[in-house]
Amino acid sequence: MARERYLRGISEEELRPDPRPIEKPKTPKSWLENFWYHHKVGTLIGTFALVALTILIVSTVTRERPDYTAVMVTENGLFPDEVTYLEGILAQYGEDINGDGKVVVSINNLSLGGQVYANQQANAQALQMQLITGDTLLYLYESTYEQRLTAVGQDGAHCFLTELPFSDDGVSEDKISWNWSGNTHREQDVILARFPKDLHFGVRYAVPDDEESAEEYAQIMKLLEAFATEKPKVK
Hints:
11% strand; five-stranded mixed β-sheet; 2 domains; D-Maltodextrin-Binding Protein, domain 2; 235 residues; elongated
């Protein structure tokens, strides 16, 4: 009661203390401390975003661009170092298409066997998508999957692979594929000997009305012919 009597006629606004004046930092150190105190969360988020963007840009710029891409269909997946070894062997028969000073071959190994059913399904779908879209034109595959790659339409023409323009003992009767079985590549190389004995090489037809795809098709045919006939282009 006494408090109310003494404060009678005084509003709540008048009772509030004057706001404390904001003191400007007097030194760079105090300015940094003040800035960090008020903006540390935003600063951390911004720094993280900048680092992530920098990593993305660097990885994109420095990423190795392959001159040739291929899909290898096997029952059991091969070890990454084995796939890399075959990529290096094939590169010896290719050309520096993108002009970066080196020949690079990239092989995507899709295993359709194994015990994990989900992986089989995912790889089978990936293979079907590659064949339909024409994103990849060079295919390596075991005999087990030959029917899938060499399917024939109602008109009697092959749905995906085209005839090879060269002759060799490993070329099939319909000229759709080349089998490296018996070729010195596999017979005389201890690492390549780990690969399936019957490994077929075939080339998908280029995407119609697509100049880049047509050029890629021509380059892949040259690579395969050089590899099959053992005429390396890169010394």
